[in-house]
Amino acid sequence: MAVITVFGATGYAGGHITAEALERGHEVIAVNRSGSAEARPGVTPVAGSIADEGLLRELAAKSDVLVVAVHGSADGEPFLLPLVPSLLAAAADGGARIGVVGGAGSLHVAEGGPRLIDTPEFPDAYKAEASAHAQVLDALRDSGTDVDWYYVSPAAEFGAWAAGERTGSFRLGGDVLLTDAEGKSFISGADYATAFVDEIDKPAHRGSRFTVAY
C-alpha cells in the first residue's frame, strides 16, 4: 500500500485517480482549495494548494507519490511551471515520487511531425493550457534532477465532456499521439486513471512521459 497525495483530487482526472487508488487499497491525501474532498475510508481531505510550499513539503514527507492533477495555466498565464522547482525540491527532501497529469497538446501527431498544439486544427481556446503543460514537461526533462517523476498525456479527447466508460483495455505510447483505425484519439477518465495508477504500482516510465489511448 502506498500513501498518495493528490493535488486537485476533486477535479476530473484527480477524482478518477483517487477512486482507482482507493480501489487498490492505497491511502489518499486528497488536496483541493476548499478541502471539500469526500471524507471516506482511506481518504484524508486537506484544504490547500500546490502553490503553498510549506504544505507541499509537509505532504511530500508523508507520501510515497505526489500526484499533480491541476491546471497548467490560470487566467491565460502559466500557473504550474513556476512551481516545478519547489515541487522537485519537496519531493527530493521527502523521498516522494511525482506523477503529473499532463496534456495531449505536446504529443507529436506523427513520428518526426509537429506537436498537436502546433497544428492549424488545434483550438485557440485550449492553447494557453496546452502550452503551459508542455512547458512543465520541458522543465521536468531539463531539470537534471534525481527525483523520480513521470508525466502522463491523455488522448486528444479526454475530459468530463466525454467521460466514456471503464474498459480495462487501452494502449500506451511515448511522445506520439495514439489514434484508432478511424483516426480518433480518446480515453475515458477511468481507463486513464488505471494506466496512471498502474505506473505507481509497477513503475516502468521513470523520468519520462507516456501517453494512453484506445
Automatic annotation (TrEMBL):
This is NAD(P)-dependent oxidoreductase. Pfam families: NAD_binding_10. It comes from the Bacteria. Transmembrane segments: none annotated. SUPFAM superfamilies: NAD(P)-binding Rossmann-fold domains. Residues 8-156 form the NAD(P)-binding domain.
